[in-house]
Specification:
One of its GO terms (molecular function) is ATP binding. The protein is built from 19 helices and 12 strands. It has about 475 residues and is α/β, with parallel strands linked by helices. The N and C termini lie far apart (about 80 Å).
Length: about 475
């Protein structure tokens, strides 16, 4: 018989809240099969209220949060990455939040390897692990026993150096590693951006080690095994925050404005580096690269004239530019930069939503959707509690009483869904009008051609040809 254990509160709650006592079973044998550890996953696009829900649930369940946001794991840029402050956490323990050096690359494999012992530790304290974040690649890597990165990242240093030497020898006469990848596997090359050196190197390493084309691995083994419900490491309860796109777009745009008021300009100024590598670490965050043109055009030149007090003066000048009414170049450039941050945030939201649909439709994830649209529109705590928190509590209660499971009763993967996935992930578009800009997938292409910068370039092109 499976051994039961009782989850008891590990901290004092607000006197007006009630903490429920729930029972979960240790991983053991029940009917001849293993009982997997129980984990709650709160997912959804940026700005949808994931962290707020997790913290509010902490007043009703003894839980601890593991952050699954690929930028919030890093130290720094607290305003830009919208980290939950210690005060906002309301006593709910948070893990992997601002703990990683901003200069390193924290991969999905490293997230998985960090989160697994954390989950074990949380369970050992009779608490419920709650994974919270919009980086669904992290979540997929954590709960699935198969991870593509294992084929390269589990190698020892000598092996990796041998592979890199092999790649270097094979690349003689080829100016760019992306061209080399394209020559051996054009399908895989179409999947990634030509400037993504880390992924290019990974694909070439895979090929050098296994002799199998990366596209075959990705479309075959990964598509079959990665993220399939019957292979889960844990028994998962998936809760997805959902918000109407027009409402969420307006909300995140307002949030960017609030970030500017809260010190975003100072943060991006402090992290600015002329020789920055925007493909690694914290510099990948939306809101960093967008400021590069402004900072190069304005800050670098101005530093020469401000002496020892340069940084302080320039930060004050940036805020003054933002609040001024003139139409000079610095203000226009700064406004355009902030608009780009908003645009790229909206694009991120759409990518995250598409990823969730793939996980549900292609891999059979049993996801419970909660609509937070009305609560965001009304800004009402009562509506939030009624339409989001209470339904989430019911879902988790059912899950902990073993009435719900992450595994649905039927196979969800189908050939039609796989064709959609291949079209979205493996088709590359190039916009000649925008300097051969590379877009991955039909959705990114559609978003690009509808964007203001593309339409401006097309208008200028038509005028010049007319």
């Amino acid at each position: 018989m499976a051994e039961d254990r009782e989850i008891v509160p590990q901290r004092e709650m607000d006197s007006q809240s009630t903490t429920e006592t729930k029972r979960i079973r240790n991983p053991s044998v029940d009917g001849g099969g293993p009982i997997k550890p129980m984990v709650v996953v709160i997912m959804g696009p940026t700005g949808s209220g994931k962290s707020r829900l997790a913290i509010d649930l902490g007043s009703h369940f003894p839980l601890e949060v593991i952050n699954a946001d690929s930028m919030q794991v890093y130290q720094g840029l607290d305003v830009l990455t919208n980290k939950v402050s210690l005060h906002e956490q309301k006593g709910v323990p948070h893990h992997l939040l601002g703990t990683v050096s901003p200069n390193v690359e924290f991969t999905a494999k490293e997230f998985r390897d960090s989160a697994i012992p954390l989950i074990d530790d949380i369970l050992s304290r009779d608490c419920l692990p709650v994974i919270v974040g919009g980086t669904h690649y992290y979540i997929q890597a954590l709960i699935s026993p198969f991870l593509l990165d294992d084929t390269t990242e589990d190698m020892d240093d000598d092996c990796f150096r041998d592979i890199q030497s092999s790649i270097k020898l094979n690349c003689e006469g080829i100016n760019d590693s992306y061209d080399h990848l394209k020559s051996i596997d054009p399908v895989a090359a179409n999947r990634i951006h030509p400037n993504n050196q880390r992924k290019i190197s990974q694909y070439l390493s895979l090929y050098a080690r296994s002799g199998i084309l990366p596209s075959e691995l990705l479309q075959g083994k990964a598509a079959e095994n990665w993220g399939r419900v019957d292979n889960f490491r844990y028994n998962c309860c998936f809760i997805c925050m959902d918000v109407s796109l027009p409402v969420l777009d307006r909300y995140v745009e307002q949030r960017v404005d609030c970030m500017v008021d809260a010190g975003l300009l100072d943060e991006v100024y402090d992290i600015f580096n002329l020789n920055a590598d925007y493909t690694r670490g914290l510099l990948q965050a939306i809101g960093v690269r967008e400021f590069e043109a402004f900072l190069k055009d304005y800050v670098v030149e101005a530093r020469c004239d401000t002496g020892d007090m340069g940084d302080k003066i320039l930060k004050e000048n940036m805020r003054a530019i933002m609040n001024s009414d003139d139409d000079r170049k610095p203000r226009i450039l700064l406004e355009d930069t902030i608009d780009k941050v908003k645009l790229n945030t909206r694009r991120l939201i759409r990518r995250q939503r598409r990823m969730i649909i793939r996980l549900q439709k292609l891999f059979g994830w049993d996801i419970h959707f909660l609509d937070a649209t009305e609560s965001i529109l009304s800004k009402s705590d009562d509506i939030w509690a009624e339409q989001v928190v209470e339904p989430a509590m019911k879902i988790i209660r059912s899950f902990l009483s073993h009435e719900a499971s992450s595994v649905p009763g039927k196979e969800a993967t189908n050939s039609y869904g796989m064709r959609i996935l291949e079209r979205e992930l493996w088709t590359q578009y190039v916009c000649k009008a925008c300097g051969d800009r590379v877009l991955r997938g039909a959705h990114e292409w559609e978003q690009h051609i509808q964007g203001r910068s593309h339409r401006k370039r097309m208008s200028k092109l038509k005028k010049s040809q007319g």
